[in-house]
Amino acid sequence: MADDFTQCMVSNSRMAARAITRRYDAYLRPYGVTATQLSLMGGIRMIPGATVSRLAEARGFERTTLTRNLDKLEQLGFVASAAQGRARVPALTPQGEALLEQLLPLWRKAQADLRAELSSETFDDGINMLKRLSKV
């Protein structure tokens, strides 16, 4: 019997992540930021004073992905970083705070649209499953 790679957790989770990211990116495209960058800005707000390493761990980013996106947000003037010993500690600038507030309704709409498409129960079950998987 051949292995059925259509049931592969790795492939299916990556395809789902890319599809969801593309959907959220479409909402944010007019504002010049990506879903990854919005998520990073949200993480910076949620964990003030966190180092890059702490943010990467808490928000599920690869450190290189986080650093690349952080650099872009700094170039755009939405984030400023300070050194704390050898660590880098990012913070939202006033422009970043304003952008995050402007984008939150779009994020909420993306969440609501996906919830409606999947059903509330399926959406909630999916979020709970992803949270469990992130601890495997």
Characterise this structure:
With 136 residues, this protein is mainly alpha-helical. Helices cover 68% and strands 9% of the residues. It has a two-stranded antiparallel sheet with strand order 1-2. Helix 1 (9-28) crosses helix 5 (94-118), helix 2 (35-46) crosses helix 5 (94-118) and helix 5 packs across helix 6. It is globular. The protein starts with 8 loop residues before the first helix and ends with a helix.
Number of helices: 6
| Helix and strand composition category | mainly alpha
> What is the CA-CA span between the terminal residues?
28 Å
Oligomer: single chain
| Sheet of most strands | 2 strands, antiparallel
How many E strands?
A: 2
Shape type: globular
Question: Low-confidence runs (pLDDT<50, min 5 residues)?
Answer: none
Mean pLDDT score: 93
**Helix-strand pattern:** HHHHEEHH
